[in-house]
Amino acid sequence: MLGYEVCQSDVLEEGFQKIAIYTDSNKVPTHIARQLPTGKWTSKLGSLEDIEHNNLQGLTGNPAYGELTYIIKNQFQSRKDLAQSNYQANLKSDRLTMTN
After folding, report:
1. Rounded mean pLDDT of 2-16?
2. Most buried by CB count within 10 Å: which residue of 21, 28, 49, 97?
3. DSSP string of 58-87, one letter each residue
4. How confident is the model over 19-67, as pLDDT tens digits?
5. Would you say residue 81 has pLDDT above 70?
6. Residues 59, 52, 81: CA angle, nearest 5 degrees
């Protein structure tokens, strides 16, 4: 799952981004929510604006959103770390281009 792993808790973990996946009775994904750095969750309700919610249970059981089935997490890179990583990759690419 692109570096994500299934986890058991919706509690905020420093250094990780969490995604909650809701599914219908056939386990087909119907909705997702993403955890914010504050520990709150955000999701989009149809064509309306994004909302913030304190927990994941508020959407559970609503037929339009399904049941909370999975919570997955991925180690989060800060923008600074990501920029540094991209810079280093570009340097390496430039060096390869110059030697060929």
Report:
1. 90
2. 21
3. TTTT-TTT-EEEEEEEEE---HHHHHHHHH
4. 999 999 999 999 999 999 999 999 987 788 888 999 998 877 777 788 9
5. no
6. 120
Token pair belonging to 43 = 């999701």
79 φ, ψ (degrees, to nearest 5): -60, -35
Chain centre distance of CA 14: 14
**Sheet of 5-7, strand order:** 5-7, 67-75, 16-23, 29-35, 41-44, 50-53
Tokens of 2: 């692109």
Q: Which residue has the tokens 């994941």?
A: 56
Instruction: Retrieve residue 73's tokens.
Output: 């997490």
